[in-house]
From TrEMBL:
Residues 208-270 form the HAMP domain. The lineage of its organism: Bacteria, Pseudomonadati, Pseudomonadota, Betaproteobacteria, Burkholderiales. SUPFAM superfamilies: ATPase domain of HSP90 chaperone/DNA topoisomerase II/histidine kinase, Homodimeric domain of signal transducing histidine kinase, Sensory domain-like. It is a multi-pass membrane protein. This is histidine kinase. It is found in: Cell membrane. The chain crosses the membrane at residues 6-26, 193-211.
């Protein structure tokens, strides 16, 4: 299950349980609370009416003529009075309070409903307790199995001359307040449903926000887990590392920690890759130097001693070249892309400086260097452009036979170096520019370091340009294509 679904499910579960228990408590408490309030009102009403009935009870008019006594007439008039009252949002169309008066023997003298006059109420709990001076109240169902038919009875003593002369009882059917209870329950249910819907909206919003932040971190992790500049083959420029996602709180701390880990891993991969490649390249010259050194410890003819000494010098020079170019490439690979420069660098100037630098080597090998084409200028680093052209010319000199020529051709935003060597097998063309990759020279030796073209490739990456190779039969053509603007 996805993280978002888990969070949303957990949010709904917690809120659902909380809403259920809260609503459950309120629903359970509504009916008792309403009945408590109703009973409290009935108590006050009973004691008030008992005080009003005390005069008629004392002079005997209530017992002699219950329906015509002053108290009875007033109660009947109120009971028969039509009403149209709105209590908040509940409509009341009739007065449903029932009043009964009993004597000290529990015999009913007056009943506002006109039903139980003369009945014996002495056995009812509310009557007997009131006559004993206690609080008398009861709730009785008209239908034993139907709580909706419950009637609440509250009694108060009728006193005259400090003596209890009767009991007045007020009663109210539960159905009279059931509408209020039902209305309250419906409101609470609607409120509960609304609360759940709002909670669902808030939960969805929070979950979505959190999932979006986590997805930013996941996307960032997926981008940085791919090959870095130092892990690939170097043929394509490594994409820039994505920016650290801006997420708040602990997620932001996690993003920064991931970025720090990425930088450390890149540095480790860079070092490990170089160590492996450098170790491989050092094996041959170190072994040759060691072998020549061991032989030089013995008594050798002068010619052999000169041969092995020259071998030591040659391999030492190869190691020196390797170290120099390795340091040069390392500096270039750690260098960020070039900032905007003014378009003042001339390709002809750079090519002429490179040719002048390698002219002595070309003369020693009997190779003629030629510069052709028209000049162009651009926003490039002159020193790096010269270094790139020098490395291409040096590579061409290594593979060109004596008596041939190396042609440097200039074109708008392009420099091409053409040699007359054997070229490169098509199956190995894609490997040109990889660190430490070399092909045999025409004399069968592998005297190169395999870093010259890597340096050229990195220089073109820094400029946003491209390095291309093509076999020309005979020879190999290497082209530097610079961007129009940088």
């Amino acid at each position: 299950m996805r993280l978002g679904l888990r969070l949303l499910f957990a949010f709904f579960l917690i809120n659902g349980l909380a809403a259920f228990f809260v609503l459950r408590v309120f629903m359970v408490e509504i009916k008792p609370s309403v009945r408590k309030v109703t009973e409290d009102t009935l108590v006050e009403t009973a004691y008030l009416l008992a005080a009003l009935a005390s005069d008629d009870m004392a002079n005997g008019s209530l017992a002699a003529s219950p329906s015509t006594s002053r108290f009875a007439r007033h109660v009947q008039a109120v009971a028969e009075q039509p009403v149209q009252i709105w209590i908040w949002d509940t409509r009341k169309a009739a007065l449903d309070l029932r009043v009964t008066v009993t004597n000290t023997q529990g015999r009913v003298l007056f009943d506002s409903a006109g039903q139980d006059v003369g009945a014996d109420y002495s056995r009812w709990r509310n009557i007997s307790r009131t006559l004993r001076g206690e609080y008398g109240a009861r709730t009785t169902r008209d239908v034993a199995d139907d709580d909706a038919t419950s009637v609440m009875y509250v009694s108060a003593p009728i006193q005259a001359g400090g003596q209890v002369v009767g009991v007045l009882t007020v009663s109210k059917a539960a159905r009279a307040v059931q509408n209020i209870i039902d209305s309250s329950e419906q409101k609470m249910l609607r409120g509960g449903v609304l609360f759940l819907l709002l909670s669902a909206g808030v939960g969805f919003a929070i979950t979505w926000w959190l999932v979006v932040q986590v997805r930013k971190l996941r996307s960032y992790a997926q981008h940085v887990q791919g090959p870095t500049l130092h892990e690939g083959d170097g043929r394509q420029p490594a994409p820039a590392a994505p920016p650290v996602p801006e997420v708040p709180g602990e997620l932001g701390d996690l993003a920064l920690a991931m970025d720090s880990m990425r930088r450390r891993l890149e540095g480790r991969d860079y070092i490990e890759g170089y160590v492996r490649a450098l170790t491989h390249e050092l094996k041959s010259p170190v072994a040759a130097i060691r072998g020549a050194g061991e032989l030089l410890q013995d008594e050798l003819p002068a010619a052999d001693r000169q041969l092995f000494a020259q071998q030591v010098m040659d391999q030492s020079q190869r190691l020196q070249n390797l170290v120099d170019q390795l340091m040069q490439l390392t500096q270039l690979e750690q260098r960020p892309p070039l900032a905007a420069l003014r378009p003042t660098t001339s390709l002809r100037d750079c090519a002429e400086l490179a040719l002048h630098q390698l002219q002595a080597t070309a003369v020693q090998k009997g190779i003629h260097l030629t510069l052709q084409g028209n000049d162009s200028a651009g926003a490039w680093d002159a020193q790096l452009v010269q270094l790139a052209i020098s490395n291409l010319i040096a590579n061409a000199l290594d593979f060109s036979p004596g008596g041939s020529q190396v042609v440097v051709q200039l074109a708008p935003h392009r420099v091409t170096v053409q040699d007359s060597g054997p070229g490169v097998p098509e199956g190995l063309m894609h490997k040109l520019g990889e660190r430490f990759f070399t092909t045999p020279r025409p004399n069968g030796e592998r005297s190169g370091t395999g870093l010259g073209l890597s340096i050229v490739l990195r220089i073109m990456q820094l400029h946003g340009g491209q390095l291309h190779f093509a076999n020309t039969h005979p020879g190999l053509r290497a082209s530097l294509d610079f961007p129009v603007s940088h």
